[in-house]
Amino acid sequence: MKLRYSPASPFARKCAIASHVLGLAGRIELVDGEGDPGDAIRSRNPLNKIPLLVADDGDAIFDSVVICEYLDHVAGGGRIIPSEPKARFRALTLQALADGAMDASILVMYEGRFREPDQHSPRWVAMQQKKVDTSLDSLEAMTPDDTIHIGSIATSALLGYLDFRFKGAWRESRPKLAAWFDGFSAKLPGYAATQPVG
């Protein structure tokens, strides 16, 4: 299998961590999709987004939610996506929360990085930042447990991204979440090996 990714993408990191948790990392070749001269991502994913997994049979699988479900299936199922309904939908809902906050935080970063200063929209940035903040407040209130599943993997990818891109500004006002994250990420397979760069 090949995983086309960006070293800084929290969505790609979520997939990479999942592959470690599932014992599949050795079967997946990581291919940096940034600046691909052959435009392989666009040719396989009409959304032109990473991550993109090319399965052993050549099928293109995207986005990160589907990739992680596919990897769980390859590993036998029920490993990071629980089979029991209550646990399953709790894990999937936590993933949705973390993914939504990742989307919003990326948009905040893109506004400063890719738009000219005179085109910045403070209202737009504030709207996206509010999504991040309310998501973090919810995580602080619930404080995930130490069960490794798709929701806690996604949450670790989110918090790692916020540490990476925003210098951990979230930590001071959310001490329970920060303590959980530091302990959880230290034992999470693949977390240290997938540190973002760029």
Task: Describe this structure as you would to a colleague.
Helix content is 55%, strand content 7%. The chain is built from seven helices and four strands, in the order βαβαββααααα. α1 (10-21) crosses α6 and α4 (85-114) packs parallel to α6 (150-166). The chain is globular and about 45 Å long.
Query: Average pLDDT across residues?
Result: 93
Describe the largest sheet: 4 strands, mixed
How big is the Rg?
17 Å
Number of distinct helices: 7
Fill in the CATH topology of the largest domain. Glutathione S-transferase Yfyf (Class Pi), Chain A, domain 2
Highest CATH level, the class of the largest domain:
Mainly Alpha
Going across the biggest sheet, name each strand in turn.
2-1-3-4
Residue share in β-strands = 5-15%
- Uncertain regions: pLDDT < 50 for 5+ in a row? none
Shape: globular
Tally of domains = 2
- H/E series: EHEHEEHHHHH
Descriptive tags:
single chain; 198 residues; alpha+beta; Glutaredoxin; Glutathione S-transferase Yfyf (Class Pi), Chain A, domain 2; 2 domains; four-stranded mixed beta sheet
